[in-house]
Amino acid sequence: MFGCSSLTLQSKDQKHFFARTMDFTKTLGNDIVFVPRNYTIVATEKNPQPTQTTYAMLGMGNTETPMPALFDGLNEVGLMGAVLYYRDHARYFDEVEEGKTAINPLFAITNILASCKTVDDVVQFFESHTLINEMVSVIDFIPPLHFTFSDRTGESIIIEPNLHGITVHRKTVGVMTNSPNYEWQEKNLWNYVGISPYDVKGIVMNGVELKPLSLGTGGLGLPGDFTPPSRFVRVAMVRQYIEEAQNEDEAIRNIFHILSLVNVPKGMVINDEGLVDYTCYTAAMCSESLTYYCHTYEDRQIAVIKLENENYDATTLKTYPISTKQSYNMINE
User: Fold this and answer.
1) pTM score
2) Phi first, then psi: what are they for 260, rounded to 5°?
3) 57-62 and 69-75 as β-strands: parallel, antiparallel, unpaired?
4) For residues 114 and 54, is the Cβ–Cβ distance under 8 A?
5) Superfamily assignment of 6-180+224-321 in CATH?
6) Domains in the chain: boundaries
7) Is 4 tagged catalytic?
8) How far is it, in rounded angstroms, from Cα 104 to Cα 119?
9) CA-to-CA distance for 302 and 296, rounded, in angstroms?
10) Which one of the listed residues 4, 116, 280, 286 is annotated catalytic?
11) DSSP per-residue codes, 29-70
12) Mind listing the pLDDT tens digit for each residue in 89-137?
């Protein structure tokens, strides 16, 4: 399945946040990776075309590839982004288009965070690059992906490669999951505009008074399964109605509460090969404080790392393995 859900959020003090879950049958990399400025990266494996990073960045990724392949992250100027699975819909090119530069889909996040400052820059990046069909050595297939980004303006954009080329969605609801395409997912929300945090009213039927059984009746009909459309609706509606965060701490708390509703426990999603799909990790980041928060399936305690505490002009990568053993706050030792 290689699922994933993502959202953006803004706190009352005008901080901007991006968050995602990573759902897969195994961890593709549980290291937080710091990439400094002027670090050499590549666009593809077969024809590397090395360039240097303009901006330092931080995110979850894999370092077994020819360069660090980030699945999500943020850079020093506050651009945030991620890749999510786009099953049966993503389309790449076999050859680079004339006048453009080839880019491996799994290398896109790293290359974009290395060179882009805003979502406008991201759009220009995709206009000048061709996503190509190329296997990456650490994965035995070419993953179908779409992309989402946000910056300090709070705008959230979605980039989808399809049969018609690249589709850019700009005025989004701030949520993304997987297939079908974003346009379909947004239209499907129309079926749920009646969802509300307020209880429904009772009625009288043929002289008999019928009352709601309990609190929470305004949420009746909110889908509870783990398919991409259901996760999209669940995240979108809870994001819409959750109490506004006053500051970063409250925003991070809200984000992890929202995404806990789409965390996939082991055993609930099993593919045709018998492999168990689950939420490997959940991550959130702040564009202004340049802070990255995450927890793994195995350890629900949130790990925190600040980009500004790193040396942007370092000459080597730095990796921070994150815990896969549950941590506890013992209060009576």
Assistant:
1) 0.96
2) -65, -25
3) antiparallel
4) yes
5) Penicillin V Acylase; Chain A (3.60.60.10)
6) 6-180+224-321
7) yes
8) 20
9) 8
10) 4
11) --EEEEE-TT-EE-S-SSS---EE-SS-EEEEEESSSSS-EE
12) 999 999 999 999 999 999 999 999 999 999 999 999 999 999 999 988 7
